[in-house]
Amino acid sequence: MKELMFQNQPIRLIEKDGKKWASAADIARALGYANADKVTRLFDRHKAEFTSSMTMLTMVETADPQSGCLLNKTTARVFSLRGAHLIAMFARTDKAQAFRRWALDVLENSAAAPSLIQEWYEAKAALDAQDRFASLCGRGLNEHKARKPPLKECVEALMHRIQPSLQFQ
Known about the structure:
CATH topology of the largest domain: Mlu1-box Binding Protein, DNA-binding Domain
Radius of gyration: 22 Å
Structural class: alpha+beta
Strand content: 15-25%
Largest sheet: 5 strands, antiparallel
Oligomer: single chain
């Protein structure tokens, strides 16, 4: 589970359907609320503003804040970073404005960084293009032999990084 930090407050990201989500409880703490109920009420009041890509209900694991031990799984509302930004638009806490700026910065930075699977597709495309090049011009075989091993290593290294992140259910 990946974790972001907002003013020394952890925002744990839950990966679901290839997207990253933050729990209402983490968002509430970051905004300065005592519990997630306030965020849920904000959502309920402004439900029409949210799309299914901004929020959903899902099963989340709750942990003891002191020990970090898993307590149980419950159904909870989670928000994408875009949804968290929108919740912060409705929040009236001292931290809301800073949280909105932070959320936009995180969104901007994550849009700039390619995902692991995207990196793999690009590396695989480069490897395939190299194979096509070699078969099209036999005289480029020496060049192909020099270029292919590093491309193949890159694809394999990315595949090894992807494998542990695949979750089968």
